[in-house]
Design brief:
It is built from 14 helices and 13 strands. The chain is an alpha/beta fold. The radius of gyration is 21 Å and the shape is globular. It binds pyridoxal-5'-phosphate (PLP).
Length: 380
């Protein structure tokens, strides 16, 4: 089965990890700071903070912004649950703003309509790897004096108006899960230009303690203080060694993802039964996902049948995402319900993510194209 996404680990990656395993530091050591510097440089941000996963990165971002009970944070429903869960971790309230029908990115008009006196932040999600409309979102955030967060877990290596993803919002969060652009197994990063936010998040990832054990070791002192409630969200030195080596390959891998997407765009352009999501002219799409949308007027079956037929043909398709506000937890706990975000709800019934990852060769790409054409034609 060809998966929808997959890591690429080479001998150099393995050697980088082994080198750290033979060194003195397994958890927070020199590779963490080195990786943070390289990552910040790559995305043109002043600071990068490495954490244990993308969810921890979102949690740290909500903490840095001081989100708490009574605060509302606007988030799109077409995303992984973690984008909204992080608001709940801090006691805040997620408010869902619907997405644009063509891109499935958060719709700035919907965001504007959800702002109240309790709104403290907007979390934009660069769904599938396409950066959101940051000019519009930044204008809304500044006009209402609230913060903008980019959940950029899909979009490392993408650009908006020639500015790299990671430099577009006050806080930008990334995941280093194996299906993402680069991996450390599990891992996450937050980038920011604000050194006060960075300091808060470094403390937050290590129990709310002022100095980590390496800093104490270097200073020769036992003294530290816990000044706020934090967590253990640290990333290990050997994971950072892996991520740093992977980072060297990022631009080539994004280019390969874009090549594959181009092949799909061309192959599916003459098929009225499916549409690819619209890509705006002012972005460079990082293609974490390639999403096709079924046209229910041209296909005489449901999405599940197409999904199962593609899987039976060896294509490990997936669906991204069940809109967050429709999950039972959200419906029961927050009273969200069907009808609140009709654009995302309709899209959810029609979308399928097909395979896209840099290690795919041209034969793999052909296999996906042929399977999609065969299955769609069988039901149209
Ligand atoms: C949009 C989005 N945000 C957050 C996350 C959470 O990242 P992680 O799995 O590293 O915790 C993911 C992971 O799939 C994601 O896709």
């Amino acid at each position: 089965m060809l998966p929808y996404g997959r890591q690429w680990i080479d001998e150099e990656d393995i050697a980088a990890v082994v080198e750290v395993l033979r060194s003195d530091w397994l958890t927070t050591g020199p590779k963490v700071a080195e990786f943070e510097r390289s990552f910040a440089e790559t995305v043109d941000a002043k600071e990068a903070i490495a954490v244990s996963n993308g969810t921890a990165a979102l949690h740290a971002a909500m903490y840095a912004l001081g989100i708490g009970p009574g605060d509302e944070v606007i988030v799109p429903p077409m995303t992984f649950a973690a984008s909204a869960n992080c608001i709940l971790y801090q006691g805040g309230t997620p408010v869902f703003a619907d997405v644009d029908a063509k891109t499935l990115l958060i719709d700035p008009n919907q965001v504007e309509s959800k702002i109240t006196c309790c709104t403290k932040a907007i979390i934009a999600v660069d769904y599938a790897g396409q950066p959101c409309d940051y000019d519009a979102l930044t204008d809304i955030a500044s006009a209402h004096n609230i913060h903008l967060v980019d959940d950029a877990c899909h979009a490392l290596g993408g650009y908006y108006k020639n500015k790299p993803v990671g430099s577009l919002a006050d806080l930008n969060t990334f995941s280093l899960h194996p299906v993402k652009h680069i991996t450390s197994g599990e891992g996450g990063v937050i980038t920011t230009d604000d050194s006060a936010f960075a300091e808060k998040m470094r403390m937050f990832r290590s129990h709310g303690i002022t100095l980590d054990h390496r800093q104490r070791d270097i200073s020769g002192s036992w003294f530290y203080e816990m000044i706020d409630l934090g967590y253990n969200y640290r990333l290990t030195d050997f994971q950072c060694a892996l991520a740093m080596n992977q980072l060297k390959k990022l631009s080539g891998w994004v280019k390969r993802r874009q090549e594959i997407a181009k092949r799909y765009n061309v192959a599916f352009s003459g098929m009225p039964e499916i549409t690819s999501l619209t890509v705006r002219k002012d972005v460079s799409h990082a293609y974490h996902l390639y999403v096709i949308r079924l046209n229910p007027e041209k296909i005489h079956t449901d999405r599940a049948t197409i999904f199962n037929a593609l899987r039976a043909d060896g294509i490990g398709v997936n669906v991204h995402y069940i809109p967050v506000h429709l999950h039972p937890f959200y419906q029961q706990k927050l009273g969200t319900k069907r009808g609140m975000c009709p654009v995302a709800e309709k899209a959810y019934e029609e979308i399928i993510s097909i395979s896209i990852f840099p290690m795919m060769n041209d034969n793999d790409v052909n296999d996906v194209i042929n399977a999609v054409k065969k299955v769609i034609r069988a039901f149209s």
